[in-house]
Amino acid sequence: MKIHVLTLFPEMFAPVTTCSMLGRAGEKGILNIDLINIRDYSNDKHNKADDTPFGGGVGMVMLADPIFGALQSIGPVQEVKKKRILYMSPRGKQLDQSMIENLVTEEELVILCGHYEGVDQRVLDYWDMEEVTIGDYILTGGELPAMVLIDAVSRFIPGVLGTQESATDESIYSGLLECDQYTKPREYAGMLAPEVLWSGNHKLIHLWQFENALRLTRERRPDLFAAWLEKGQAMTKEEKKILEKILSAG
Q1: What does the angle CA 134 – CA 28 – CA 20 come to, to the nearest 5 degrees?
Q2: Are 107 and 1 in contact (CB under 8 A)?
Q3: Which residues contact 118 (CB under 8 A, 6 or more apart)?
Q4: What confidence score (pLDDT) does residue 174 get?
Q5: What is the model's pLDDT at position 116?
Q6: What is the 3-state secondary structure (H, E, C) of the chain?
Q7: Among 46, 114, 186, 236, which residue is least crowded by beta carbons within 10 Å?
Q8: In terms of Cα–Cα distance, which of 182, 200, 201, 203 is closest to 192?
Q9: Helix 143-154 crosses helix 20-27 at what angle (to 10 degrees)?
Q10: How far is CA 185 from CA 42, 142, 188, 199, in A?
C-alpha cells in the first residue's frame, strides 16, 4: 500500500514510520509512506501556508493554494480525485474497526493533516475529502491522528505482522478485551503468574484466557460486552458454562 501524507511537519513521522513493524514493512516494500511538505507548494517567499479566517475569530486557517499544489504533486487532478482522500479532523467520522478494514482494501490512500483552526473548506469540497477523527478531543494538529490511522491500517496489510492472526486476535478486534498476559519468571516480587498458564494444558489455558477476557470486558467496557453477546457467538459447552457463571455473578 502507498500512503501519501500532506503535512506541515513531515519530520514528525520518521520516528513512527521508520521503526519497528512499520519500518520493516517499508524496507520490504510492503508499505510506502510518501511524505509531502505542504509548505513546499506555497507561493509566498516565506513559505506561508496559513492566514486569518474570514469572519474573524482566533487562530489561523490553512490556505487552499499550497494544499492544492501538494495534492497535484501526486498526479493529474482527475487521477488524484479517484483516490481515497482523508482529512484528519475532530469533526470527522470516528475511526473504528469497520473503517480500518475498509481502508485496507485500497491500493493508495491520501491523508491531509490539518493544523491551526483547520483548512479552507474549499479544499475539502473540491477534492471530496472524507473527514476522520480518532476521538472526541482536540490535538495540536492532524499528524498524530494520521500516524494512528497509518499504524492501525498497516497491521492488516499482509506481511506487516508475523501472521495474519496477530491482527485479528487482538483486543477489540476479537470483540473482547485482551486477557491478562504474563511471562518469565513464574514468580516476581512475591507474585505468581497463574499456574494454569504454564501447565501445558492448552484447553485449560484457553478457558482461563476466555474467562479472563470476558471478566475484563464486562467490567471495563460493558458496551463491547453487550455487543459481543448480541452477536450470538458460537461457543463450546465449557465456554457457555463460563459465560453463564459470569452473567450469574451480577
Answers
A1: 50
A2: yes
A3: 61, 62, 89
A4: 74
A5: 87
A6: CEEEEEECCHHHCHHHHCCHHHHHHHHCCCCEEEEEEHHHHCCCCCCCCEECCCCCCCCCEECHHHHHHHHHCCCCHHHHHCCEEEEEEEEEEECCHHHHHHHCCCCEEEEEECECCCECHHHHHHCCCEEEECCCCCCCECHHHHHHHHHHHHCCCCCCCCCHHHHHCCCCCCCCCCCCCCCCCCEECCEECCHHHHCCCHHHHHHHHHHHHHHHHHHHCHHHHHHHHHCCCCCCHHHHHHHHHHHHCC
A7: 46
A8: 182
A9: 70
A10: 57, 42, 6, 14
What does the pLDDT read at residue 175?
A: 87
Q: Tally Cβ neighbours within 10 Å of residue 124.
A: 20
**Residue 152 backbone dihedrals phi, psi, to 5 degrees:** -65, -40
Burial (CB < 10 A; 0-12, 13-18, 19+), residue 69, is middle
Largest CA distance in the chain: 72
| Other residues' Cβ atoms within 10 Å of the Cβ of residue 209 | 18
Measured distance CA(159)–CA(231) in Å, rounded: 30
Residue 169: what pLDDT? 52
Q: Residue 238's closest CA among 216, 209, 217, 218?
A: 209
Q: How many angstroms separate the CA atoms of 145 and 134, rounded?
A: 6
Write down the pLDDT at residue 172: 52
Cell output for 133: 477523527
The average confidence (pLDDT) of the chain is 93
Give the closest residue to 7 by CA, choosing from 31, 40, 32, 30: 40
Q: Exposure pattern of 155-176 as b/e (b: 16+ CB <10 Å)? A: bbeeebbeeeeebeeeeeeebb
Question: Residue ranges of the chain with pLDDT lower than 70?
Answer: 162-173
